[in-house]
Amino acid sequence: MILEALLVLFALVIVTHIIDYYPLKLHYFKKQKWDLNIGCGPTDGGGLNADVVPRKVPNFVLIKDIYHLPFKNKQFKTVMASHIIEHVDDPEKFYKELSRVSENVIFLIPPVWDLAAAFNLPEHKWHFLTLGTKFVNTLPARVKLPYWWYHNMFGQRIE
């Protein structure tokens, strides 16, 4: 009985993460093209694509410092930051820099119901206290995840 309950819980965690990361993300990317797609991963946002690691997407720019982007003030009309804000050390500072280079900042974030995001020990630093996934020109309420010590020792670094 306990094993079955754990398997159901595990399946629920995986399914909610897949729904958040794939269909919802693709839905927003199909609706609009972005002037700047930062933290692009393998996704082409239709404009300039940027990330902290090299990617094989069109119009790619490698970012060395997310808090000092190599772009002019208000160079872009709209920037998309998809599933990146939960990785950064200082979300407010990153948001301020994105606001400097763009008129509009759109975040796609893992919501509170994406439990896999909360337990992503090596990568995520923040968990967002919202049911929504898309935020325009604002950051939702969030909590710093409690395993900072693990992340500091073994986790992904985005600086």
Automatic annotation (TrEMBL):
InterPro entries, sorted: Methyltransf_11, SAM-dependent_MTases_sf
- Please tell me whether the keyword Transcription is annotated for this protein: no
What's an example of a GO molecular-function annotation for this chain? S-adenosylmethionine-dependent methyltransferase activity
Residues in Methyltransferase type domain copies: 62-101
Q: Which residues form a coiled coil?
A: none
Q: Which residues cross the membrane?
A: 6-24
The keyword Transmembrane helix belongs to this UniProt entry's keyword annotation: yes
Q: Tell me which Gene Ontology terms the entry assigns under biological process.
A: methylation
What keywords are assigned to this protein? Membrane, Methyltransferase, Transferase, Transmembrane, Transmembrane helix
Instruction: From the Swiss-Prot or TrEMBL record, give the protein name.
Output: Methyltransferase domain protein
Organism for this UniProt entry: Candidatus Bilamarchaeum dharawalense
